[in-house]
Amino acid sequence: MLANNQVKVLCIEGNRNHEYAFADELAKRGYRVKTVNNGTAGINLLPEFTPSIVIINAASLRTDGSRISKRFRNCLPTCPIVLIVPDHADIAKNSEVNIVLQLPFTVQKLINRMQLFQHNREEDVCTVGPLQLNAASHMVTYHGKECCLTPRLARLLLELMKTPGEVVPRDTLFRRVWETDYLGDTRTLDVHISWLRRALEDDPHHPALIRTVRSVGYKLDL
Fold first, then answer.
1. Vertex 139 angle, CA 39 and 96, to 5°
2. Domain boundary among 99, 117, 135
3. pLDDT at position 190, please?
């Protein structure tokens, strides 16, 4: 497991005097923390600070965090994102993040969740050739390259890993990953496949690992 002082945390926190402000406490525990008070400032910081984990304290920002989460997911498709929301928030719509924590909770609970991304548990690892997926932490390793997926991307990859070399139909993937029988618009599947390719492929525009079988579905070419 990575030591705390090896973990770079970007914390978007609107009011550091807020009852549930966590940046200063994380810094005291040895994490390398950069704090900004809005999403735009956080995005602007990325060229000079590449975080291991992003924490969006939406409760201190007086927002639901969904727009900020989407911006960071687009910029950092493989970075773990933790979203902190107030106790009355609707947590179901935040599919761009890895973990949603609903207040109130302690800083230790936050650290416990962060540590999911600091180590792998062998019993939760699915391996197909050079591709490894940790089902608990959503960490994926491919030819030595390691990154973190959102829960939905991890489920999508796992479905493809169950039958390597075989085509998985689009409607099957949609039913299993999104757990719905509504198949009126499956374009979101294509978007998530695109994100997987950005995370894993050397050239996402010419994929060699996750291949499209036109009008049928996708297959893992291993």
1. 35
2. 117
3. 93
